[in-house]
Structures are given as C-alpha cells and as structure tokens.
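Hallway conversation turned thread

IA: we were arguing at lunch whether anyone had actually written out Peptidase M16 end to end. Turns out nobody had. So, for the record, here is the sequence (404 residues) and right after it the structure tokens. Reply here if something looks off.
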Amino acid sequence: MKHAASMGVGLFVKEGSLAETKQELGYFHFLEHMLFKDSENRTSKQIATEIERVGGILNGSTSREYTQYYVISIKDKAELAFDILSDMIYRPLFREEDIKVEKGVVIEEMRSYEDAPDDFVYDYYFRNIFGTSPYGRDIIGTKDSVTGVTRKSIRKFYEKHYFPSNMVLSVSGNFKWDEVLRLARKYFPFENPKGKVSNPIVLPSPKKHYTKHLSRRKIEQFNIMLGANGTPRNFKDVTVTQLMSTILGGGMASRLFQNIREKEGLCYSIYSFPSFYRSTGLFSISCATSKEKANQCVGLILKELDTLVKNGFTERELEDAKSNQLGGMAIGYELPENRMNNIGLQEIYFGKYYSLEERMKALKSVSLDELNERARLTFSIPKLHLSCVGDMSESAFQKIPTSL
C-alpha cells in the first residue's frame, strides 16, 4: 500500500467459540481478555501505553469461528507493533490475580449486554434460531463457566488452540515482502509444538428454528429480529447475498428504509445483514419500534419480502447495488485496517486471497436471475423466525405475523 502512512498487523486464530466444549464455554473470549494482561516483558499498562503514546490502536475480538488480535500504527512503528503483538500472544503470564480481576470484567460485560436491549436481542435471537446447537451459544459464555476459570484450565486451553499452524498473520501497509518476512520471522516463530496440527472444527449445518420468542421487559421500544435462510461462507454466495442485502436493507436508499421508515415513519432505523459461517448462514432483519406499531411494522416487512419473492429485483436496483458495493470496496481497500482484516479472513475461509480486481469482476458478473434466485431461496420458507424484546403481552405478541 504505497500511499499508506499507517500499517496494520493482525494475528488470527482459526477457531472461535464453536470449538469450545461444554466445560469451556466462553474460554476463547476470556482468553482474548487475558492476552491483554501482563506478559513476560510488559505489564498490561505498559502494553497499552507503548501503543497509545504513538497514536496506535490495539484491539481484539472473538467470533464463533475465529479470534483476532491486531495493532494499527504509523508505518515507522511497525517493529513496535510486531513486538507488542508477539509479546501478548506468545508470552502471557496468566497470573492468578489477573484472572480474578478479569472474571469481574467479563461478568460486567455480560451485564452490559443484558441491560442494552439492542445488544441482548441479537444474542437472544441466535439462541432461539439455533437452539441447542453450538451456533446458538453466547460467545461470552455463562456466569458459571467464567467464574469457574482457573489458571490451569485457561493455560491448558491456550496450549490446545494457540500454535503457529492454527494462526494467520496478516500484514498491510507500505512494505516490501522481505521486510514483512523479516519481522514475521523475528517476532512470530513458525515452529509448531510436536504433534500439533491445525484442524479447525467444521460442525454439521445446524437446524434452524423458525419460531417466535418474546423476552418481556418494561422498556420504551420493541426490538425486533427477523431471521430467514442463509448460505455458508463461499466466495460466490457471499458476493450475491451482499448485493441482495444492499438493495433490501443496506442503507438509506434501501427498500426497507424507504418503505418502513421514510413512508410510514414506523422506526428510526431498519437494516438487513447476512451472517456467513463454514457450514451455515443466516439472513437477518433488525429494527425497533413502539409496541403499538410492532404488528404493523412486521406486517409491512413481510409484505416487502413477499413482493420481492414474487416480482424480484429490477435491473436498475442491481446496477445501483453493484455501484454501491464497488465504491465501498475501493474505499475500504485504501485503509490498512480493512485490508489486514480482508487478507486474514480470506485466508481462513477460502485458503487464498482474492484481489480487489477479482472481487470487482465477480461482483460485476452477478446476473439479475442469480440475484432473484438468491432472494427466493432465502425467503421461500413457510414462516420467518421472530425474536423480540419489549413490553408486550404474550397474547399480543402471538398475533404478530411471520408468514409471507
């Protein structure tokens, strides 16, 4: 990235919460927290201070299928970025006092989700649509599993999952390849412990439950999650589905925004989004409205979907969506953080890197027939899943429709 003054380095572990056993719920997330604590060479304060004093960003995240740690900094501080990320990943201390403190932090994080309806409804939705499948478990774990973490159990978990062939190191910025290799070899040894082989878990496609669920709370808004069919993460289906989501609920010009918010004034925001995994996927629609308008709001969303299934999209909508996606790709491609994420995730899921030109070519090649077929496959189900949080009686909730 010859134009870039900043750089990004990310370490991706090829596993996330789906790889946990029932005795390890929330361990990937808890371990992510612990790697920001004291290492052999630095205290947690020193780790934060050394990055922030040069204007850098240090962060991490845990998902169902991968875990990520990354540093964004000015290009001149690339060696520092590699050094700190390596120190965190390879030399954690797992001190008893740090584990005790972090248990409290994670419990408070759980409470913050519980207190925020727009966060809670998302986890509630996954629990309900995937049921007892590991896909339905909260990534953060449970209070019991988190409070049960010990120094021995978290170190054993770390050694089980954190080794070089189970990781991807992704780098973006104004580098030459030799410089990347030098830094990688210096700070991220490639040798695997004896007998360690990367074999990321791929679960069978889980059954989805197209049912209705209400978590009753005395709050002002009624939070709605509608769930439809989806596809596993493969390059072609991701390209087509993202185009569909752009037209349906991807921005202010989308069908849902224009017809539910702008024409009817039923909500402040409404959007759709796909979720892609190795063996399954979801297509979701989210909005919040008053309990008095919830039935009408869901009814109009279903009407939009019914019209879509019957009549399809238009050529103009497809061309506008392609233009939108092409512009977003080009803008994102110029940002080191986005490029670093893109490299890492493509390597994990596709085993190769699709360049900007290849992605643009694939996008431009999508036909209207392919797009409309994707819509039919997504929404041609007897009824959609509905998970809601709000102050409504169960009898009133059951009257909300879910069939097109």
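OS: looked through it. The domain at 6-187 is CATH 3.30.830.10 (Cytochrome Bc1 Complex; Chain A, domain 1).
IA: good, adding that to the notes. The first helix runs from residue 27 to 34.
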